[in-house]
Amino acid sequence: MTLSAIKSKAAALKAGFAEAGAMPVDCPVLLPAETLLDLYGEDIRTRAFLTHDPVRGEVILRPDFTLPVVQRHMAEGAEPARYTYAGEIFRRQEEHPERPSEYHQVGYEVFDRADPAGADAEVFARFADVLAPYGLRAVVGDIGILIAAVSGLDTSAARKAAMMRHIWRPRRFRALLERYAGRAPVPATRAALLKCADPLAEAGPVIGVRDHDEIATRLAALRADAAEPPLPAGQVDLIEALVRVSETCGYALERLRDIAVDMPAIAGAVDRLAARCEALAARGVDVNNLPFDANFGRTSMEYYDGFVFGFSAPGHPDWPLVASGGRYDALTRQLGQGREIPAVGGVIRPGLLVDLEEAET
């Protein structure tokens, strides 16, 4: 595989999306780190490359294109809009050192408030058509259903907020669910802290970035959380049943409708899934054989908040996804400075397509 072959494949994919009506855009390689840190917290440092510019301050090597495309659209874009782009992105690969930390992406993004289900189907179907010659396996999911389930739990706003932050970190989410349900023991250090009437009275001088008031506020939050009743066992069981749903779309929809009977908070999200399935079928997608996994997309960048999809190479289980994408309405609200617009898009890794083509020759 050569760089010229990858660039040629990327240019061909981008041209195809442009012919379909997308406007080609270019994005800077260096992005302000502050925006990404505000969105994703300090965890972004483990996944991206940050450096310091003497004029701009802390900057980050572009970890993907979605953020700058959203910023551009929210600042100057008309509605509806479709964009396409191609270029390098940079991501640290500490968990997979065998994978490159610099590689190419080609993307297609749709900003359209008129028909979200139709836009979801448009993006997925366009990717399915482009990738059809490569024998990839498609899978879809919907993070919005789990978000709706957490929103409807009978617990405090603080606990819901904590679970929302960790939806994209399944192990931490599971640990919180177990703790809030009273199924996991309270750590000994926390138990000892909560038993102490005034932990700060016997503490030494404050060392670190948190001052006395911040520590006191955190202690008050821990005490308030300890006083909360456990999550109802039935709701915990329903959450666990929800994240286990892994069927073809038709059967998954039936199962989720059954869960919605006892968890009405997800009914609207399940209705949106049904509308999406109808829109996909209208575009010729065989939804009766399309796999749905309720957990899919939960380890991706945290901006996906609804429909998600991916295409993998069956003969290469060690590879990352060849293509992936999803809906990120919340990101447009965060970056829109008072404006928002439903948005969905996806990316393809042209280098992996080149690898597949070369393997066949």
UniProtKB/TrEMBL annotation:
Example of a GO biological process term: histidyl-tRNA aminoacylation
Alphabetical list of InterPro entries matching this protein: aa-tRNA-synth_II, aa-tRNA-synth_II/BPL/LPL, HisRS-like_core, HisRS/HisZ
One Gene Ontology molecular-function label: glycosyltransferase activity
Keywords from the named record: Glycosyltransferase, Transferase
Taxonomy, superkingdom: Bacteria
Domain spans labelled Aminoacyl-transfer RNA synthetases class-II family profile: 17-350
One GO cellular component term: cytoplasm
Pfam families to which the protein is assigned, alphabetical: tRNA-synt_His
Membrane-crossing residue ranges in chain numbering: none
Residues at which L-histidine binds: 64-66, 91, 105, 109, 298, 303-304
Quaternary structure, from the entry: Homodimer.
Name recorded for this polypeptide: Histidine--tRNA ligase
Organism listed in the record: Antarctobacter heliothermus
